[in-house]
Specification:
Blueprint lengths: L2 E5 L2 E4 L4 E8 L8 E6 L6 E6 L6 E3 L7 E6 L4 E6 L8 E8 L13 E4 L3 E6 L1
Parallel strand pairs: 2-11
Antiparallel strand pairs: 1-3, 3-8, 4-5, 4-9, 5-6, 7-8, 9-10, 9-11
Length: 126
């Protein structure tokens, strides 16, 4: 059974930090880019960050560049998102996802990912 399980979300004050985890079972992530996305109520899901198959390259949306860090542990089949200097506009449900194609460059489009977790809520109070 394929599962991507996010955890680590919660309520935090502006300026605080959270570390999201995504533990994957039932499939491997070592050959795949892993992405983090987020969705606010009434809005479309948007790209946040991605890390390539061997962890050597990362990509971030402009609004989180310098504040968020994505990392990957292929041995643990896990991906993480360290979020610092959080802002109220970071409030959303955060999802991890696996790229549909192995060994390719970083992809930011939602359609490029075919396995998704159930999401974890992040709420940042002002």
């Amino acid at each position: 059974q394929v599962q991507l399980v996010e955890s680590g979300g919660g309520l935090v004050q502006a300026g605080g930090s959270l570390r999201l985890s995504c533990i994957v079972s039932g499939l491997t992530i070592s050959a795949y880019t892993m992405g983090w996305f987020r969705q606010c109520p009434g809005k479309e899901r948007e790209f946040v960050a991605a890390i390539d198959w061997n962890g050597g390259r990362t990509s971030y949306t402009d609004s989180v560049e310098g504040r968020f860090t994505v990392s990957k542990d292929n041995a643990k089949n896990a991906v993480y998102l360290q979020m610092n200097s959080l802002k109220p506009e970071d409030t959303a449900v955060y999802y991890c996802a696996r790229d549909r194609v192995p060994f390719r460059t970083l992809m930011v489009g939602i359609e490029e990912y075919n396995y998704w977790g159930q999401g974890t809520q992040v709420t940042v109070s002002s």
